[in-house]
Structures are given as structure tokens and as C-alpha cells.
């Protein structure tokens, strides 16, 4: 998993509340056998018309937000089903951080486990950030996980909370497998000292 320490990027304003995981990646696209490739399906029904052509008014299709790495949204982002494909799609598209007043619990957990940083800020701070981003297309902020701050060149600054364990996982780039491998020596020692009957070598 890629480490998350500091990120500076354009903020993309998705002015919607209760964005569920079926909007993030519709169920008909959950057929890939790996986590790569879901970015093309991100917000598919919002981004494209029925004939497959882009909807020019949707925020992800607007040129001033091209290459944005930080998604700004409203409360209860990621509600609905528990599909892990939602953070996969967001990351595959290019997002590394999300800002909203609140996130659905399972979605938030899945995001942390995949290297995507969900930042919860007070609703009034999110509203202020929305006004700034809409008034200044291409507006960028810097996210510093070590100091737990979000700052803008115009003087915008706020701090955010994050569980210490989740913070350390992101800083070190440790997914579940990485966490286990960090204790590889202890695991091997345990295996050596706890010989199971079915592992006893057969003697003639």
C-alpha cells in the first residue's frame, strides 16, 4: 500500500449528501478480479449519459478540475452497501483524500485499509471550503497527515482528528498483509515453538 504523508492537490467539489456506494461504483461493474481498473466506472451514471457520452456539467467532467486528488462532499458519504470497490474506484481514478462532515462507518474503514484518507471536518468548515472551491476553480489544499492539518494558500487552515493506529498505518503504508508481515519474525518463532501433530515428520 502506498504511504500517505503529505498531499497537495486540487479540490473537486461534489455537492451531494448521502452519496452511496452504488453511486460511487454501480453494481454492474463489480466483476473485475483485481482492485485495478475501477476508476473508469467511478460515478458512472453521473459522469455519462445512457449512450456513453460524458455529461459536461458533472463536476468530474469539467476541465478546471482535471487531475484533482481531493474530493469534497457532504455528510454521510459512502453510505449503502459495504463494497470495498468504492474506495478502489476512488483511488484508481486518482483520489487520495476525501473531505466531508461525516462518512459511513464501513466505507471509512475500507478507505483507511486501502490507503485513502477520509477527513471529517465540521459542517460549517466544509461549507466554507465549498464556497472557496466553487469561487476559485482549481483551488488546491495541502493535507499533512503528520500534523493532521488541511491548509490553503489563501490562509484556509484547519485540523482534523484521526485514530492513532490508523494514522500510523497510513504513514507507513501498511495494509492488513503488511501489518502481519511486520511481525514475521514473531510468527515464525511461534510456528517453530508450537509444533502441530500433523507437522511431525514421519519416521520409518
Question: In a few lines, what is going on in this structure?
Answer:
This protein has 204 residues and is α/β, with parallel strands linked by helices. 31% of the residues lie in helices and 15% in strands. Strand 6 and strand 7 (157-159) form a beta hairpin.
Distance between the termini: 47 Å
Biggest sheet: strands, sense, closure? 7 strands, mixed
Q: Please count the beta strands (DSSP E, at least 2 residues each).
A: 7
Q: Could you list the spans in which at least 5 consecutive residues all have pLDDT below 50?
A: none
**Strands side by side in the biggest sheet:** 4-3-2-1-5-6-7
The CATH class assignment is Alpha Beta
Structural class: alpha/beta
User: What is the count of DSSP helices, taking H or I runs of 4+ residues?
Assistant: 8
Overall, the morphology is globular
Beta-strand fraction estimate: 15-25%
Spell out the helices and strands N to C: EHHEHEHEHEEEHHH
Radius of gyration: 20 Å
Q: What is the averaged pLDDT score?
A: 91
Oligomer: single chain
In CATH, the topology is named Aconitase, domain 4
The residue fraction in helices comes out at 25-40%
- Tally the structural domains: 1
* The CATH superfamily title: Aconitase, domain 4
Amino acid at each position: 500500500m502506498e504511504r500517505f504523508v503529505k498531499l497537495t492537490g486540487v479540490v473537486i467539489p461534489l455537492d451531494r449528501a448521502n452519496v452511496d456506494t452504488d453511486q460511487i461504483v454501480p453494481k454492474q461493474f463489480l466483476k473485475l478480479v483485481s482492485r485495478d481498473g475501477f476508476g473508469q466506472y467511478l460515478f458512472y451514471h453521473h459522469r455519462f449519459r445512457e449512450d456513453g457520452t460524458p455529461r459536461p456539467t458533472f463536476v468530474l467532467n469539467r476541465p478546471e478540475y482535471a487531475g484533482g486528488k481531493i474530493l469534497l462532499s457532504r455528510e454521510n458519504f459512502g453510505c449503502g452497501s459495504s463494497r470495498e470497490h468504492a474506495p478502489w474506484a476512488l483511488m484508481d481514478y486518482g483520489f487520495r483524500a476525501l473531505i466531508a462532515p461525516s462518512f459511513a462507518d464501513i466505507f471509512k474503514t475500507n478507505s483507511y485499509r486501502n490507503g485513502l484518507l477520509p477527513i471529517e471536518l465540521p459542517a460549517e468548515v466544509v461549507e466554507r471550503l465549498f464556497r472557496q472551491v466553487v469561487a476559485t476553480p482549481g483551488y488546491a489544499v495541502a493535507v499533512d497527515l503528520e500534523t493532521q492539518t488541511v491548509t490553503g494558500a489563501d490562509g484556509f487552515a484547519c485540523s482534523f482528528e484521526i485514530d492513532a493506529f490508523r494514522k500510523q498505518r497510513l504513514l507507513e503504508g501498511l495494509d492488513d498483509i503488511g501489518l502481519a508481515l511486520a511481525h514475521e519474525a514473531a510468527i515464525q518463532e511461534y510456528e517453530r515453538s508450537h509444533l502441530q501433530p500433523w507437522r511431525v515428520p514421519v519416521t520409518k
